[in-house]
Specification:
By secondary structure, this protein is α+β, with helices and mostly antiparallel strands. It is built from 13 helices and 20 strands. About 40% of the residues are buried.
Amino acid sequence: MKQLLTDWGSEPLVVASNEGTGDLPPGEIVYTRSGGDSVVGSIREFFASVEHPSPEVMAAVERFDPGGTARVLAEPFATARTMLGRRTFGVRRDRWSAWEDKMRVDRLWDDLDIPHAPYRIVTPANAAAAARELASDLGTVWVADNFEGWHGGGEYVKWVAGAGEYEETVAWFNGRARQVRVMPFLEGLPASIHGWVTESGVAVFLPVEILILRHADRSAFVYTGVSTLWSAPEAATREMRGVALRVGEALADRDGYRGPFGIDGVLTDEGFRPTELNPRMSAGAGAQLGSVDLPLGLLMRCEIEGLVEVDHKWLEDAAISQRKPSIHLGKMVSKEIRESMSLRRRPGGGLVEVEDGAEAIGKLVAGPSATGSYVVGEFDVEKVGIGKPVGSLAADALNLASKKWDLGLPEMVAAETPEH
């Protein structure tokens, strides 16, 4: 976005937590040096560092904008009306962000007759009883309310495989949540569907694979990114797009919603079962909209501000026709490393490091993050292969990175793909 604004004649100032992994944009960058021990923790600490900035950060901002006329383009998660002493531009409304609370969204599925997993909303003290009632062969999944604020990336979600884990899990949620939602663990492919609500209607896109990996010992699962290489079966595509259309229309009718949204869930043998609603630009939406020749971040903000009108059919057609297969794999780790390695497939399965880049299907790069380091996957999608899920590839890559760089990550495996 910075380069685009520069091309248009603007001179933006970037305020970031740290250097991050990858190439830095040209121009002045001010670092708040906020930390965090997780993705959600780092986002919360960064927001705190720009909502209540240090004198050093504010001095840099005042030098850049002495008249106080600049506007802040904040991250999609943001709801604050001011940051760095200036008004934010195009942030989502509080009533929109409220839909991220998992205690609320299942009632929306009920209202819209969308099939979903059974669930119970209970206090942490009563979660074990609910789990005994609802457990599948793989156990249950517990998720916190928004008592501590917005959360994502699966950080306030726990896979509880058996009764022996109830006491420890209840203790973890105590103090972090007033209520938890308990539902059976669903076997299937983690997937999402996205749309965009405009004044003219709801644009609906195509399904996306969510790279949620499981610890091999069934102790937890972890979010590691998204992929658009997977081609969902026709029946699943129709079902998931129908869900997105109904949800988008409901958000518009009930709350005057505008902009992108995503619905995460699991594609099971019985069909798609939604588990959460993300009323914002999310990784899955960005992965498939990134190839559309539009400044989507600015478009989203302008639409929220009521400054533009977007034809939903045009946007839907552009997103589907211009979508390019991609893998977005990333994992925050606590160890500070600055390394990279190229990868190739091993004949017997899995991945190995390779010195010859011509043989590689991709590479892993580790660089700075608020938690220590961020491990990113960069893949040649043609060599990987288009059409099938890539969760196993993601698991193999992170397992190799953990072993090679001594990251201390548990061994990971991918979810099983449904039959249909």
